[in-house]
Design goal:
Blueprint: E1 12-13, H1 20-44, H2 61-92, E2 100-101
Antiparallel strand pairs: 1-2
Helix pairs in contact: 1-2
């Protein structure tokens, strides 16, 4: 047996790249996993606002509460969008993935 015969491809190889649908689905789930951290950062921004005890004028409490509830509502809308997009991708991803074949 020649050493080159052991190195012949078997005919089917795994794809080196992810399919578009699979790649998009993974990036969508990655973005959805980062959404709570984005929400925590947005809700922590009012902690950086001046409180009005120094020479600077502070932000009114009504403005801060409005900002917090706006961020809260935006996070709910963003999670709904991610949920609908994930459901839509799952419906379109019913087909079997094709495998690449080595050229002989």
């Amino acid at each position: 047996m020649k050493p080159d015969e052991d190195r012949k491809p078997s005919g089917v190889r795994p794809s080196l790249f992810l399919e578009r649908q699979s790649y998009r689905r993974r990036r969508l789930s990655d973005a959805a996993r980062l959404l709570p951290f984005l929400g925590a950062a947005l809700l922590a921004i009012p902690l950086l606002w001046p409180d009005g005890q120094g020479t600077q004028e502070g932000v009114s409490l009504s403005s801060a509460i409005f900002y917090i509830f706006t961020c809260w509502a935006a996070m709910i809308v963003a999670s709904l969008v991610f949920g609908f997009a994930a459901r839509r991708m799952r419906v379109h991803d019913e087909s079997e993935p094709e495998t690449d074949r080595w050229q002989r």
